[in-house]
Design brief:
2 strands, disordered C terminus, Anoctamin, 282 residues, elongated, mainly alpha
């Protein structure tokens, strides 16, 4: 907008009675061949951030929807008032951007599965409920999910200041699955940790397959081209074939009529002597 305003100070501005539309648009910004590159890049980056980390911020798709609704109108105003009219060109699809979006969509399933498995308490709670709970309830889950550490083993330089004044605390609890101090394998992961890790990996694999099956089913259920559009395409092809057939028939008729007209002319163009000689030879 600022560049157009600056260039308009040097341009000619008047009504269309004096200058044509293309002369008035000459002072606008030139729409280059990569003019849509940054528009596609912006949408692909937005799509990537939303799909890759939607489990961390589920409100992001709604905010992106509001942003895109506003941006559609802003881009329409920009392309119609701030840029020269672009040269139209045919394109079968959006090109490499389609493959990039498909790759991001597949990768987003993996990232969201890892986020859900490793940042939530769903898997540890289920493992505790079905494998380690004595009464098939969640009672004792918090105590089970905390490990013990001996404070006396902390290096003096890293010792908390409060501990120097109060020596009544000898252990602390932290969230992990490790053997307590005094055990032959102290501070190493317990078997419950590996059970939870295996359950998380199984959840990731199952979730990926379920999402991919749903994706392929929805893609098969919803066609890329609507049925009415397919019918119109078939009708257009039929009309083109009929037109070409009629054109071929008319061209053949014209050739035949032209041959019938030219043959008598070729005979009459002969001289009387030549005609007699041809008749004698025949």
């Amino acid at each position: 907008l600022m560049r157009n305003w600056w260039s308009s100070r040097k341009g000619r501005h008047s009504s269309e009675n004096h200058y044509s539309r293309w002369e008035q648009d000459y002072v606008l910004l030139n729409f280059s061949q990569i003019g849509l590159f940054y528009e596609y890049l912006e949408m692909v980056i937005q799509f990537g951030f939303i799909t890759l980390f939607v489990a961390s911020f589920p409100l992001a798709p709604l905010l992106a929807l509001f942003n895109n609704i506003v941006e559609i109108r802003v881009d329409a105003w920009k392309f119609t008032t701030q840029f020269r009219r672009p040269v139209a060109s045919k394109a079968r699809n959006i090109g490499a951007w389609q493959e990039i979006l498909n790759a991001v969509a597949i990768l987003s399933v993996v990232t969201n599965a890892f986020i859900m498995a490793f940042t939530s308490d769903m898997i540890p709670r289920m493992v505790y409920l079905y494998a380690y709970s004595k009464d098939a309830s969640m009672s004792g889950y918090i105590n089970n999910s905390l490990s013990v550490y001996n404070i006396s083993q902390i290096h003096p330089d890293n010792m908390p200041e409060d501990y120097l004044h109060d020596n009544s605390t000898f252990t602390c609890r932290y969230r992990d699955y490790r053997y307590p101090p005094g055990h032959e394998r102290q501070y190493t992961h317990t078997m419950q940790f590996w059970h939870i890790l295996a359950a998380k990996m199984a959840f990731i694999i199952i979730m990926e397959h379920v999402v991919f099956v749903v994706k392929f089913f929805v893609a098969w259920l919803i066609p890329d081209v609507p049925s009415d559009v397919k019918a119109r395409i078939k009708r257009e092809r039929y009309l083109i074939q009929e037109y070409l057939r009629k054109y071929d028939v008319e061209s053949v008729k014209l050739q035949l009529s032209a041959s019938f007209i030219t043959e008598p002319q070729s005979e009459t163009s002969l001289t009387p002597g030549e005609y007699e000689m041809v008749s004698e030879c025949s």
